[in-house]
Amino acid sequence: MKKVRDNFLFRMWLMLSALIVLALVGFIIGYIVLNGMKSISLDFLLSHPKGIPLGAEGGILPAIVGSLLLTLIACASASVLALATAVYVSFYCQSRQLETVVHVIVQCMAGVPSIVVGLFGYTFLVAKLNLGRSLLSAGLTLGVMIFPFIEVRAEKSLREFNRAILQSSYALGVSKVYTLLKLVLPQCKADIVAAVTLAGGFAMGAAAPIILTGAVIFAPIPRSLSSPVMALPFHLYILTGEGISLEKAYATALVLMVLIFAINIVSIALTFRRKEVGR
Amino acid sequence: MYRVFDRVFTQLVKILTICSLLTLVFVIIFIFKESVVFFKAVPVLRFISGRSWNPLLAADNLSILNIILGTLYVSLVAIVLALPIGVGSALLLAGYVKGQLRVVIRGIIDVLAGIPSVVYGFIGLLVLVKFFETTLGLSSGESVLAGGILLAVMVLPYIISTCHESMEKIYREHAPSSQALGVSRSYLLRKIILPESRRSILAATVLALGRAMGETMAVMMVIGNAPIPPRLFGKCQTIPSLIALEMGMAEVGSLHYHALFASGLVLMLMLLVINLILYFLKKNILLQ
Q: What residues of A are in contact with residue B91 (Cβ under 8 Å)?
């Protein structure tokens, strides 16, 4: 009898927890989409914030462009460095100790919370290097934040590369660099691009690092790297935090989520294609 | 021709690697350096054991015990809420859901992970906090519990995906023999998969704790940000929200500014310990 009851309770637990998770996802997405759809329009997407207080009327074009630019700078700066590190660790590094040191450093950095990265960006880039609150300092701060994320995934992909192919290539006297560029990278390309896009989505949604380093309440579309920017997450924070306009906040949240999902879908599609090719 | 290119490429990879490692080390040292200035004025123990935080008064009034407790309290509430749900869903995914459906459900759960924290904070403020105020009749819905619930939702995907991976592996190992013996699936899950995967459940817990403690925006929007001793239905302050709120006000180079760096350092050290534990846990899981 006890056994039947235990089994029943166990199953109930599993069912309930899965139901809760699915309900949560449904609720969150439904809440934002339903409320956001009401106040979203082409005009909202394509005009500048207006009204008093600023943001109560008008649109969010500068914030959309700002967010995209920030993401681009972050991805560009982080991916080059992260990729080089991953290649070095998995193909060039000879000593185990050095490998462990690199892993520990990357792991440490992955543990640094985004707000502390923002703190660093604020003091070093904005104040000490005198870059000011700008597109460049915010983008680089985001880049520092997503570096470990890309490095870990890129390294994993490179390490999963078939060792037998690698050995045969070396045995044929093909140089390491040629092997890397013509054999390894083409196969790992999709995985790496997926990692970078995923990191991009992560960077686009992050508000904490850019509060201090570049995001402002209002700015036109940035003309240069040194001009301050508007960003969607920060705009959403201001709209809700200051109680400016709930409708605009819903719509901003919807736009932000749609952009991030679009990025994630690209990344998932890439991962899938790679798996199918691999089979 | 290729020779030259090879050498250039190899050197380039090395230089870029050194650059990135130096940058990372520099970030860590930089934060350390800025905090040390503060610890010269206020002893470390005084800083983490005192209860008052008032940047307008003398240096002695800058201490963060309440804020550390707040950070831990909110994160622990989140873990307690999220762990049973996360482990349950992971078990269900590993044992009962197959093929395409599993991929779809994993995708849906990953969607949760992709939602930015500001959006969580926004929903928390409009739904959770309002619910506490109107339905439960609390004077202020901004509370540790609200932050905890919100964080629980945010760390769920991490718990599920960490647990699920190893549970699936263990399931595949044991499923044929248990089927041959006529053991029911739920018995297999309960008596073998669950105990066998305790290490990865622990890893998931540690990972989620790290995530929760470092989270800024969502928590900041729903906990009220008052540096008082935390209670479940009372306001509190966490280290990330403290930094985010007060950095803009602190003059660069002032004691207040260095105190914020110092609290950032305290948070980083706590997370560092957590991450090192995670690193070794993961290593052990892989070795098994």
A: 14
**B156 and A81 in contact by Cβ < 8 A?**
no
Provide the token pair at B29: 């040292």
Interface probe, candidates B17, B125, B142, chain A, greatest A C-beta count within 10 A: B17
Claim to verify: residue B35 and residue B85 sit in the same structural domain:
no
How far apart (Å, rounded) are the C-alpha atoms in residues A214 and B104? 38
Residues of chain B contacting A256 with CB distance shorter than 8 Å: 116, 118-119
DSSP 8-class letter at A57 = E
Lowest mean pLDDT among A109-118, B156-165, B237-246, B276-285: B276-285
Burial (CB count within 10 angstroms: exposed 0-12, middle 13-18, buried 19+), residue A186: exposed
Report the residue from B112, B247, B260 with minimal CB separation from A25: B112
In terms of domains, do B120 and B36 share one? no
- Which residues of chain A does B28 touch, with a Cβ-Cβ cutoff of 8 Å? 108-109, 112
Domain count, chain B: 2
Query: A46-278 adopts what CATH topology?
Result: MetI-like fold (1.10.3720)
Q: How far is A110 from chain B (nearest CA, A)?
A: 8
Closest in A24, A207, A268 to B107, CB measured: A268
First-last CA distance in chain B: 47
Q: Which residues in B lie closer than 8 A to residue A268 (C-beta atoms)?
A: 107, 110
Q: Are A252 and A240 in contact (CB under 8 A)?
A: no
Task: Determine contact, residues A84/A71, Cβ cutoff 8 Å.
Answer: no
Q: Cα B10 from chain centroid?
A: 37
Cβ-nearest to A24 among B6, B153, B261: B153
**Does residue B130 sit in the same domain as residue B209?**
yes
ipTM confidence score: 0.87
Domain region containing B32:
2-41
**Same domain, yes or no, for B164 and B76?**
yes
Angle between helices B99-114 and B65-95 (to 10 degrees): 160
Distance CA A231, CA B88 (A): 37
- Asked if the structure places residue B272 within a domain, the reply is no
How many Cα atoms occupy the beta-carbon half-sphere of A3 within 13 Å? 4
Q: What is the CATH number of the domain that holds B171?
A: 1.10.3720.10
In tens, the pLDDT along A218-242 reads 888 888 888 888 899 999 988 888 8
Length of chain B: 288
CB A113 to CB B216 under 8 A?
Answer: yes
**Residue pairs spanning A and B at CB distance below 8 A:** 241
Same-domain check for residues B9 and B112: no
Per-domain boundaries in chain A: 2-39, 46-278
Q: pLDDT tens, B145-202?
A: 999 999 999 999 999 998 988 898 899 888 899 889 988 888 888 888 888 888 889 8
Number of helices (H), then strands (E), belonging to chain A: the values are 12, 2
